[in-house]
């Protein structure tokens, strides 16, 4: 991959990552409930799934999925339903604001384990089958014939890791600092409800989409 192609890839993926989606919403929700440092576990779960997706793209599975509408439909139903489940769960949450406790003890004092946070993040990242198809069309555009494909996919995944980690940590730290600075009462509950509604909207969008 040439430096020019890498720069284009970096900018294009950065813009995509900056756009709020299910992964960003989950990072924000977990940061509010368990402290901004819990975002690292959430991001790790997301990137683990992204690694598998990039491997599948390299193997051409995304293109194969497009020719198998039944499997795509199954994945779409499961993914959309899971996002709706998370949304309903968030809307039913009765937890009060804990911004005053957003510090080093926030995660350890929570009842949700790191494994649970990791698993939830992995499933949210895997919940939209369009991600696989999107990356199948997106990543090959930045491949060069001058270098082995596996090296270029490795570079792109490392770049993805850097972008996702930086952007998501920025969101998590920003929302935590915002809550502490303005001391907004019950802000956690309000934002949790908002993210819950957005999860339901995104899940419904996946279920109702034609593709």
Report the count of strand segments.
0
Radius of gyration based on Cα positions: 18 Å
Biggest sheet record: none
What structural class should be given to the helix and strand makeup? mainly alpha
Could you report the average pLDDT, rounded to the nearest whole number? 76
Gap between N and C termini: 31 Å
Low-confidence runs: 96-110
Spell out the helices and strands N to C. HHHHHHHHH
Number of helices: 9
Q: What share of residues are in beta strands? A: under 5%
Report helical residue fraction: over 70%
What is the global morphology? globular
Question: What structural keywords apply?
Answer:
75% helix; 211 residues; globular; mainly alpha; single chain
Q: What does this 3D model show about the protein?
A:
It is a single chain. Helix 1 packs parallel to helix 8, helix 2 (22-34) runs antiparallel to helix 3 and helix 3 (38-59) packs antiparallel against helix 8. The two termini are 31 Å apart. It is built from nine helices and no strands. It has helices spanning 3-18, 22-34, 38-59, 61-66, 69-91, 114-126, 130-138, 149-182, 187-208. The protein is mostly helical and 211 residues long. Helix content is 75%, strand content 0%.
At a glance:
This protein has nine helices and no strands. The protein is mainly α.
Write the layout of secondary structure elements.
Elements: H1 3-18, H2 22-34, H3 38-59, H4 61-66, H5 69-91, H6 114-126, H7 130-138, H8 149-182, H9 187-208
């Amino acid at each position: 991959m040439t430096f020019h192609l890498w720069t284009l890839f970096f900018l294009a993926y950065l813009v995509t990552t900056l756009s709020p989606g299910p992964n960003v919403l989950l990072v924000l929700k977990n940061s509010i409930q368990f402290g901004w440092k819990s975002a690292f576990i959430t991001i790790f779960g997301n990137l683990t799934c992204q690694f598998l997706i990039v491997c599948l793209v390299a193997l051409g599975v995304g293109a194969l999925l497009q020719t198998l509408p039944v499997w795509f439909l199954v994945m779409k139903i499961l993914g959309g339903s899971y996002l709706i489940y998370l949304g309903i769960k968030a809307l039913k949450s009765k937890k009060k604001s804990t911004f005053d406790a957003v510090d080093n003890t926030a995660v350890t004092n929570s009842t949700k384990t790191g494994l649970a946070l990791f698993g939830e993040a992995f499933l949210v990242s895997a919940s939209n089958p369009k991600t696989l198809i999107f990356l199948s069309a997106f990543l090959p555009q930045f491949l060069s014939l001058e270098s082995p494909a596996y090296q270029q996919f490795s570079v792109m995944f490392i770049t993805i890791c850097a972008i996702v980690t930086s952007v998501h940590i920025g969101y998590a730290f920003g929302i935590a600092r915002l809550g502490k600075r303005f001391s907004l009462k019950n802000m956690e509950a309000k934002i949790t409800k908002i993210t819950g509604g957005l999860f339901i909207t995104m899940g419904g969008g996946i279920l109702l989409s034609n593709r």
